[in-house]
Specification:
Length: 311
Amino acid sequence: MNFIEATYLVEGIKEESLKDFSENLALHLSIGGWGEIPSSKRKEYRKFTGKVIDAVYSEKKGLIKVALPVVIFEHRVSSIFSILAGKLPFMKNVKLIDVDFPPQFLDHFQGPKFGINGIRDILGLHHEPLLMTTIYPASGLSLKDFEEEFFKHASGGSDIVKDSEIYFDDSFAPFEKRIEIALKKSEEAESITGRKTLYVPLLKGNVDEILKKAEIGVSLGIKGFLIDGFSYSFELLQYLSEKFDAFLVISQLLVPQSVSSSLLLGKLVRLAGADIVIFPSLHTGIPHTDVMEISENLRSEEEIQKRSFTL
């Protein structure tokens, strides 16, 4: 049987309690506990039960590695996250810090549709850094203002121009009109600079509105979309990546205290299909080691999925 291996850090635990805690953790993550399950039925549930691979104690901390049967997971990032981290807010001082997947399980995930090389192919730029800029002000921008601002960015050398993550009022500059203007102005700018510029509009609204906008955007020629990764679930991110022929820029992911940033912003959003991930950098207080681990998880050549840009 294949297993997904999850590593947890538990703080403030006594060494003599680590073994029992580890076994209970593996049990609760997989079948939720024996609870009301009759003794006569427990044998058949063993195949769904997690097991402890390792438990190491050091200075009031325990590092626990648990193997959970692949059969209890769906091939969705939401399933992975819910099973491995869904109960952690109810457990004191426990943090999910890493996950290792069997190759057969990863084969079911498309991951980024374009990835680093695919986006570079669209732009025709393979050996230099890319520049992404954001249009401001975020609210109240008229179509005329948007046209002027976009052209400044494109003619100034920006490779990707995106909406702001807080742009939530389409009444002044409607979604379709912005796209039409951006596509026209990007051609004008390219005739000056010789470089392509991609416009990345924000997908917002309820799920029906988001899907409709994505369909319209792709039909008009948009190559990528920006979406708030915290407000909208892994499930929607994965669906958008699989359904539409456009890359995804994921921003504003909030990292729960019970999950490591390198796992959430690195491995899991890459599985969900993020081609570009915007996450807080060193100047916002994220430790240097975390930033490096996030980048490594997004850009590692060892994974089956395409690599993701980091910003």
